[in-house]
Amino acid sequence: MFILLVVGLVGIGVALALFLPAKVLGAEEPPRPVMATVVESGSCGSGMDTVEWDADGQKKQAKLDGCGHTKGETVEIVNTGGEMVSSAAAVPVGLPVGRRLTALLLCMAALAGGFYAFLFRYAPLRAPAVLPTPRRAEPAS
Q1: Which helix (H) or strand (E) holds 87?
Q2: Transmembrane ranges (predicted)?
Q3: What secondary structure does DSSP assign to 32-83, as a single string?
Q4: What is the CA radius of gyration of the chain?
């Protein structure tokens, strides 16, 4: 009965951790993509493109982590706060569910292993359900 309780609680924990928004768990919100215009095109062998976008009424410029765009082309970028911006297509989208699921399954495996070790160590030795009856020695005739 105890094992069912543990497995049920771990299952509920896994479901909550997977379906709760990342913001509730303390993760920061992913950066939002914005549209930017290529101001200066760099060749792929020697440099990067420079893009310009509107951020809260101010024009900002930064190097794009990419090359080969034509001058005046509109690209979707993600500003991560540094001197360089990335293409929105190169940034992973969605919640990091894989890491959470891996950690929770590792915890569940450790719990199951610990419980197995507990049963192996502390379980009483069980007698067989039907004890064999001893055979009587027959008298020699």
Answers
A1: strand 84-87
A2: 101-119
A3: PEEEEEEEE---TTT---EEEEEETTEEEEEEES---PPTT-EEEEE--SSS
A4: 32
Residue 141 pLDDT grade (very low, low, confident, very high; cuts 50, 70, 90): low
- What are the structural domain ranges in the chain? 1-28, 33-90
pLDDT at 67: 81
CA distances from 16 to 25, 84, 110 (A): 10, 36, 19
pLDDT tens for 82-124 read 788 878 777 666 656 677 777 778 877 887 888 788 777 776 6
Assigned CATH class of 33-90: mainly beta
